[in-house]
Amino acid sequence: MKITVDYIKGLKGKKKIVAITAYDYTTATLIDELVDIILVGDSGGMVMLGYDNTIPVSMDEMLLFCKGVAKGRKRAMIVADMPFMSYHIDDTSTLKNAFKLVKYANVDAVKIEGGKEMSDRIKRLVDAGIPVMAHIGLKPQTATLWHGYKVHGLTKDSALKLLEDAKALEDAGAFSIVLEQVTYEVAKMISERLSIPTIGIGSGNACDGQIIVIHDMLGLYEKFKPRFVKRYAELASIIRDAIKLYAEDVINGKFPADEHTFHMSEEEYKSL
Ligand code: KIV
Fold it and tell me: What is the pTM of this model?
């Protein structure tokens, strides 16, 4: 059975929500049964397309990532990031872009970065039938333009602002909220005060669930590693070792071997 918004909301207080990013069909087939939520994050712009940050990611790029993931999923809920400036101009363009992701790329919900200032827009999407995951704390789409990749919730003022934002987003109808790089204390306070689940990234273990970028946890993305990332595998070195062996085999004539080779029949060969 496919995971629904109500199922995710119902997990709060009962079982931690497991979320991870993916950007393509093959990865989606591998992880589908293992997680509750697959986030097609705009981090795909960095790990798949080599952008320095998420600002340049376009709707067309997100649609392509989402289509691949949707083809590979059977069970997990797919949430798609709305790219920078695809939901900032007005309600109409926001609705059109969100509909494209749901209608043509088969995702189940969209994610939007922003606090109280985004609550009216989120309400419009929810009223139109599109489930929305909100995202506060470190907001990667605007972090580089404003404050850099800083920790949020270090001071009383910052904590109060996060609490106010989280409440406004819940009231607007968001079904969950990503808390990125928020102090443990504030993430705990928000998680306890909201009836919708919080999904943490770099925000400690008091959140109702966790999300991580798959290239980070598998050790595939080597440009930088945020402090909050735990590496569960070192795939970059496994890939390099495999490619070295392949190159050696090609150079030494060991690959392809006979079992990888197709033959004519002897009879056909002789007549040739
Ligand atoms: O784009 C992304 O991968 C995200 C996660 C970091 C939450 O927004």
Answer: 0.96
